[in-house]
Design goal:
Elements (H helix, E strand, L loop, with lengths): L6 H4 L1 H53 L3 H14 L3 H9 L7 H4 L7 H14 L10 H25 L6 H8 L24
Helix pairs in contact: 2-6, 2-7, 6-7
Length: 198
Amino acid sequence: MAPDPLDSLFELENTFYEEGHELGVQDGGRAGRIEGRQFGLEKAFEKYVVMGRLHGRSVVWAGRLSSPSQASSELGAEDSAGVSKDASSQQASHPPESTAPDAIMARIPHSTRLEKHIRTLYALTEPASLSTDNTEDAVSDFDDRLRRAEGKVKIIEKAVGDASLDSNSSSASSGNAGQSSSRGDGGIEDMSVLQARH
């Protein structure tokens, strides 16, 4: 018996389905690699921006940290000059007109523990030592260093008394939304407007 010429029409839907599926797999694979690369570059850039900010803060804190000899010489100069507390408080309230770094930013009193934390933060965030390889070990090492550096920043901020630069993003990502701390901004989580009932 001769093959029926209409048999190919019965398989037309399956043929188009298989052809479309094959084209979709090829196109999806290409588009997925492009989209994955763009997503990876965005996330890597965000992580390196955070690391750069932390490195900058470590450099500023290291610059603000007074050396032990400088701290003792400043104390000795005040004692030898006989400056009263009233005169020194008047000088502190009216900073000099110079633009020297000491006039702009307050010095941090020397502490060996604080100096160790700042040195560790600097070593963790040093750009030359950060790997840009796209391997499991390199990414894991970078994430570990970033996590440790963020912890050091919190320790140094508490010791120095500086406020966090990005408190909104860090508190939202840490899940601290349930804390009862008051920001005083009148937002939905501001507890300063509530009156205690006794």
